Amino acid sequence: MGGGILFQGSNILMVNNSRRGGRTDWSTPGGVIDDGETVIEGLTREVREETGLAVTGWSALAYTVNVKAPDMDWDLKVEVHLAKGQEGQIVIDDPDGIVIAAEWVDTKDLPGLLNGQQPWLSQPLLEFIGAKVEPGHAFSYRVNGRDINSLDVQRL
Length: 156
What we know:
6-stranded mixed beta sheet, 4-stranded antiparallel beta sheet
């Protein structure tokens, strides 16, 4: 999977995702990289599909996230990259039907927006934005349990 960090001044682009059971969460745009695509190719496609924006280039790897959830039998690996720039206007037309909104959010408001989100999503982004980790930092988590409302999440 790939995730993209896009800035417009002090604002960061966030997308609202519709999840099972009627839940929603906020994240940076991104998604599954298709067979035959590089992470950058897939990420560029995902950003365009989810937001209508065309990324004009990518700079260095921002960070990676690895989450192991043995009780749910899944293993998530995400590369998050920083966009150099983007063109166009926000248009939501996600073919997967997951992204229901996209907004430019002031980075000072990001902690409030991400309050209550899964730690593997919120912690890496907030630490990267706050310059608490070097670019390319690897974040790892282990998730125990099956109930989304009572998961035991451990940062490794």
